[in-house]
Fold these 3 entries.
Entry 1:
Amino acid sequence: MAAYTKHIFLIGMMGSGKTTIANMLSDKLNIPYIDTDKDLSSILSLSMEEIFNSLSEEKFRVLESVYFVEHLKNQQHIYATGGGIILNQNNRDAMEQYGKTIFLKASSNILFNRLMNDKHNKRPFFEKNQNQKFLTDMWNHRKKHYIESADHIINTDKKQYQKIVDEIMEILK
């Protein structure tokens, strides 16, 4: 496979598999990956829960965008983006300019089941609103931006992670 030289952005709702897929792609392509939420959390020395409790969502989105757009000027990475990164026009423009964006699309019932079964990751939005209607409403608010931002859409429902990675590898050829 010819070397892919731009950034690779994985976008999608929380629970869509962005971090797992980014990690697997990183191993396969020998390109470092960054989970933007985890990286921001590390930089601020705060958990995502603490960040959301101390900042409004609006302030968090500004901070996230400044961090994201500045980081893109560095070496090539695979980005497992925060689910709301597409809400900011600057972020959408940056993804279009600096790389290939792949939307990992999952249905709200699949997302709900994954999130309910994931006891290791705190997700501030979901922790406060553990119901499928909340996820459906969030999806309805964001779907236009996910679809418009994506160079490619991969439906992840009922697919094993390796199959998704294989599909992405085909896209990058």
Entry 2:
Amino acid sequence: MESILLCNGKRRKARIEVRDGGRAFIIYLDGTEHRAEVVETAPNVYSLLIDGCSFEAAVSWGAPGEASVSLHDGEYEIVWENALAAAVGDAAPHAHEARLVSPMPGKVARMMAKVGDAVKKGQGVVAVEAMKMENEIRSPRDGVVASLHAAPGQAVERGALLAVVK
């Protein structure tokens, strides 16, 4: 069934066919067919092969049908509507919470929120330093910081769980 996908606010027609037990997909985006394979390489970090091109994505799951995806070229806010939301949202691990993960190896520079703090969508929760640049890890949804899994000065790998927002 076709649905509507919002990617950074842009509406796209989408349909997904799941193959190979959930590791392979045929994705129809605005009528164009794309073949994809997905492997979770670390918690909330995925190796993607789309039309023969390889990508790595760090995903923070929001409410069912919502996700924040970090790719090499930027951050994407994804919202699925209709039946696609049910298919994707239900399959998403921890769909009722946003799991903030480190998009790169580095060192935790600072914590910008503490457990129990209310946060808004887009608000910084943790800052990770990599190659002398500080990267703010932001909440993909409104919620409350349920847990923190890192501390300032701690070394983290790509995909390391930093915080959970519920």
Entry 3:
Amino acid sequence: MASRSWTAEPREKTEDSRYRDEDFMPRVGDPRARQAYRILQFAYVVAPIVAGVDKFFNRLTDWSQYLAPVVASAIPFSPRLIVMGAGCAEVLVGLLVAVKPGVGATLAMVWLWGVIANLLLIPGHYDIALRDFGLSLGALALARLARSMKRSIFAGI
């Protein structure tokens, strides 16, 4: 197998390990991998916290427009209270990504899948669901990098 440009050192080539998971994961010492990891981690700390806090103030948008009526009717709380609860959850996810990026990013990915499911129930919001699918893939990438980096945003600062 050809050596990747991002690998820190060439790996042994054996017949039974041709497609090992490790062959596609960057090494911890690779500065480009660390930079990509930090960029994704910063984004998945800041964005959920900002969006979560804004669900209390509605400065960026009126968040209740993104709550599917079927979901709102299934939960015995007002749409405003549901949105604020989602905001609290998003802030917690952002904080978790800061201290436990592998767990937090996985949770962010699953959260985004829930958001996507909700958005698919609202006609005319399919573009936002597609965007959130892309964000969920970024969260998956961060979770994979975090498992190879084994560090939090506060480590090494």
